[in-house]
Amino acid sequence: MTERIIELLHRNLQEVFGEGDAARRRAAVEEFYTDDCVVHTPDGILVGREAVDTFAGELRAMHPHFVYAHRGEPAVLHDAGLLAWGSGPQGQAPEYTGLDLIHVRDDKIAVLYVFLNPQLA
């Protein structure tokens, strides 16, 4: 379970939130998220894969040249995982940073909490 949680943390960051191609992003959402997933963001709560896909696509469209990079190593505790990340132009300091906290059920993300760090958000 630990390896799967770490895989989901890394792949979600790149293949969902970092993906510019809508078809590839949608396929990743289908692979990584449960049907009834819930995503908590600073702007609200999203329910279901369609909502996650729409949110990730809109976020990507706002910053199409930004890349996501993990910061440090992920942490896993039972069926949950935590990953710190930063986002900004390739090769530059991140313009914003945050933390993803996931709860995994049946090898998929059931709940994602997205925390933005206030000093760089």
TrEMBL record:
Domain called SnoaL-like: residue spans: 17-110
Name of protein: Nuclear transport factor 2 family protein
Domain of life: Bacteria
Entries under InterPro entries matching the protein: NTF2-like_dom_sf (IPR032710), SnoaL-like (IPR037401)
Pfam families: SnoaL_2 (PF12680)
